[in-house]
Amino acid sequence: MLTLLLIVLAIVGLLVVMRREAGAPAALAVLGVLGLVGLLFDAEIIGGLLLLGAAAVAVAGLPALRRKWLTPRLFATFKKVAPKVSATERTALEAGSVSWDGELFSGKPQWEKLLAFKDDGLRNDEQAFLDNQCAKAAGMCNAWDIAQERADLPQQLWDYLKKEGFFGMIIPKEYGGLGFSAKAQSMVLQKLSANETLMVTVGVPNSLGPGELLLKYGSQDQKDHYLPRLSDGREIPCFGLTGPRAGSDATSLPDTGVVCKQTINGEEVLGLRLNFEKRWITLAPIATVVGLAFRLFDPEKLLGDEEDRGITLALIPRDTDGMEIGRRHHPIGSPFMNGPIIGKDVFVPLDTIIGGPDMIGQGWRMLVECLSIGRCITLPSGATGTARYALGWSGGFTRVRRQFNVPVAEMEGVQEPLARMAALAYISQATVYQTANMIDHGEKPAVPSAILKSQLTEFQRVLLSDAMDVHGGKAVTLGPRNYLGIGYSANPVAITVEGANIMTRNLMIFGQGAIRCHPYVLDELAAKDANDMQAFDKAFFGHAGLIFGNSARAFTLGFGIGKASVPFDGPAAAYAQDIARLSAGFGLCADAAMASLGSALKKREMISARLGDVLSNLYLTSMVLKQWQAGSKVEGEEALLHYSCRFLLQRAEQAFVEIFDNLPNRALGKTLNAVVMPTGRRWNKPHDDLARDIARRVSTHSALRTKLLENTWDTDDGEQRNPLARYNALLIDYDRAEALYRTVNKAYAKGELPQTALHPEARVEAGLEKGLISAEDAEFMRTFEAEVLEMLTVDDFAYDAFAKNKSTLIDHNETPAPAPKQAEENVK
């Protein structure tokens, strides 16, 4: 009995020590005391084993002992197996900052650090711009007109965007810009997402491009000259990074600059001779100034002893000799300005380098640092705005579209995608807003930028497919009335650009985060590079303590023992506690994958991707909880919180299962499964009851729908009709209309109305004649039903409207000419 008791006490004591990461002295005390108890009370075998364990802990765990024999051996082995970090990888790793993503990597997230990012909301001028200028700009757009008729924004819209400073949102007011916060930029782009071409046109100059690069790295002369001109639209910028052979792998630029001298106007000028070929450059066809990334060489060593000077960035005026610019690509689904730029022996002086000669070779660092913020804002905000509009349109359409005498929104087959759309929009909005809020507090989120870009654009893909499904024929028939189809076809652009989602998910989220966000890995690699054994000892054994700690936390939390303390109450508390459990499991699995696969993990992209999926879903859930905690709640929002968190945590657990099943070391996979999920999976997909409740709320005039659509373009006072505003107006009147529908339909079913009254309008008139409804109700229904029919109607065109070359048009209904009579053959 004593033996069993000592074993239990040893296990419990060690689990407590490991959970608290109390270190070797605490473990030594537990084993030593229990071992002595065993020896003193006739349990010699277990007592001896415990004392042997204590001795092993002392030799391996106490710094004074281990540094004499263990650490040197571990250090030598580590130097052999540790992955090499290239200069470009190191630049990416050192760029940006680590915040909540690092907490999730630690396995013991401190929620107070996330909640410390207070939200002050938008400034008065930011909110006014959102309410007025953004609404007016959105109201000038019709997707069909822009995509099919003119392949461009209208001229008056271009003029308005320049006049109102849309291209200078990130530029400080002292340079004539708007000086908006990251949150305001995000909200502007969400509102402009009513039209994807408009959103891209405004988003790109305020993201990765000359404006941000000049702000952070430009010389004072460059700032003074360009920033005011960029702010008011006198200059339209683009940035040439990608090319035929350098897309996602932007470090492999084949474009070159060579330091040389050239005589200009009788004076010898030191400068660069550039040769480049760029593709997929947004705004290039109309840009007046081109930011350019290239590899700089100095073969004559005019600037120093180095020949290869590294990636460098320059700013080149459009009219520079030798540069070909102006042709267009044809992006799928959307005619936003995009095209190639080619340069042959283009000479520019040294002062065109962004930041001047001192910034030679710093281009990759400059790009990565800018991208970490821009990638958090532009495409994620566009995806979020698209999600909210698609939800608003779909909820309205499915409520007024009737089949089998009921709104299709009441059919469970439609309710399922509606609820999913609402959750994806809710998650996206919380994530992009709270991450922008971190940026406003000085963070430069490198790993979260990859999470947001890939996850939210993938949400957009799912959500737009759902929207197309519930709209049916309304959405697959293009024309001026179709507010969805063109945006749907343009979705692959968001999936592909600013780091293709395949690359981002498989290589960047975990690949960058494993080193950048891990509490110890970067220190271990730095100690290796510095050949500092003492620093390695500190980092390595701190890392070992973290592994033991995460093992204990994941295992005990898996049984519900010692739940994490979280600063949430109500429905959010359970989800925050489970994030702590899964965070511990994630930290353990990350270390296990790195230890078992070593440098080969870089090539095991599917495992890396699943680890990234766990991190992504934990990050997204955290942002939802932060938004819930910080914001005001409306009726029905709790159901959406439950749906969203369960949806995300179920995906996280699924990623864990796939990691366990696919680790090459099968014993390790089974062990991790037993430690991380000792009682199996906790989260299933959201329950149908939640889906039904959410779907009804987003397809009616409800507080939840109003909150989800807040700060979208929802007025109908623009140059173009606003489908969202029209659906909102119909939903306000819907309850009255539904009661009247029931009255006349019931009468028709009883045979009280003529059998020829097949249309709603006919039944209304018949009901009025029979005295079933009042004249006032009949007039209301005439107006209501006319608007419903308008929203259900699709466009048609002349037979020859789509043939660009009319001479190729086939008239299939043309009366065929009579066949010529064949000469009668004489047969004799």
Automatic annotation (TrEMBL):
Protein EC: 1.3.8.7, 1.3.8.8
Enzyme class of the recorded protein, top EC level: oxidoreductase
Protein's recorded name: Acyl-coenzyme A dehydrogenase
Cited Pfam families: ACDH_C, Acyl-CoA_dh_1, Acyl-CoA_dh_M, Acyl-CoA_dh_N
Xref: CDD domains: ACAD
UniProtKB keywords: FAD, Flavoprotein, Membrane, Oxidoreductase, Transmembrane, Transmembrane helix
Cofactor: FAD
Catalysed transformations (reactions): a long-chain 2,3-saturated fatty acyl-CoA + oxidized [electron-transfer flavoprotein] + H(+) = a long-chain (2E)-enoyl-CoA + reduced [electron-transfer flavoprotein]; a medium-chain 2,3-saturated fatty acyl-CoA + oxidized [electron-transfer flavoprotein] + H(+) = a medium-chain (2E)-enoyl-CoA + reduced [electron-transfer flavoprotein]
Residues annotated as domain Acyl-CoA dehydrogenase/oxidase N-terminal: 127-233
Domain Acyl-CoA oxidase/dehydrogenase middle: 238-338
Domain Acyl-CoA dehydrogenase/oxidase C-terminal as annotated: residue spans: 361-501
Transmembrane segments: 45-65
Annotated source species: Vreelandella glaciei
Residues annotated as domain Acyl-CoA dehydrogenase C-terminal bacterial-type: 515-797
